[in-house]
Amino acid sequence: MTASFQDKREYETKGETQDMTPTSSRTLSSDGETDQVLAVEPRVLNGHTLTKEIPFRDVCIAIWDGLLLEEPAAAPVELPSPDTLRNRLLIKVKYAPPEEPVSASSSDDEEGSKPGASYKMTQDLGYHFMRTYPSGVRIDLSNMDPSSFWRKGIQIVALNWQTWDTGMMINSGMFADTGSWVLNPPGYRPYLQNKPGSNIVNTKDIKLSITFYSGQNIPLSEDCISSQRFNPYVTVELHVEGLGDDHSDESESYERDEKYTDFTTSHKGCDIDFREDHLCFPHINGVLEELSWVRFQVMDEGFKWDELAGWACIRLDRLGNGY
Description:
disordered N terminus, PI-PLC Y-box domain-containing protein, four-stranded antiparallel beta sheet, PLC-like_Pdiesterase_TIM-brl, alpha+beta, phosphatidylinositol-4,5-bisphosphate phospholipase C activity, 27% strand
């Protein structure tokens, strides 16, 4: 006789208890012995919150019922190229139980301490996706600067859309007017390594100067109720990093950012004449324009603090003369 049922168990991996939902099929033979085949299915969670998990199978059925394959396709001999994956949905699974659990301590001691570990990771990023996200113990909704991770070759940076800060503005400037994806610049694409000059990161020496003439219909800041109390000015900030720069020292990176920030004088009203206010940034060497941005913020000058009224973030290689 044969019977099938659902079974829920606790699996312990890497010192942490993971609550998995496996599908268990058990066959009872005539001699009383039991054979069991276990297949663990993924589940969907809302981060580290108290909401209950949802089986991934139920999510797929709810969205694509009738469009799903009855049987899984055969495992591919080689990974498909991005071109063959166009018009398809890619599902990224964060966790899969290892066949042989490896403790975190042994991994850190043996692999993480090797001098070539970080270099090997950089090389692997040319062929594999990697995502970075904020610490789980953080209590605010601030965002990381995604550009520092993109420059290291990391493709995906998790951001909080609830907060429009520097990280979200740079992210918007990166993907503006694109099909939601951006091709890495030459030197970040290993499949071109056999072509002459394809592994060279093309940097430039830049000197940026901006002249402000006028502004019309500038929106009021959130707490401003009258244009008579509106005192706008524009801050301009360059987000650049030279080849080989390392932002491991957080205070040093802030000092570097401070050097490339300038602002206009403040005026009154929503339609203003900047009187050709000229901002000139110092000469900067070794700038990769595809991974550098200029950010404009219209600020309302206040008594206690200044409020944001509007902003724009543009990648340097998309910025032309007379923009």
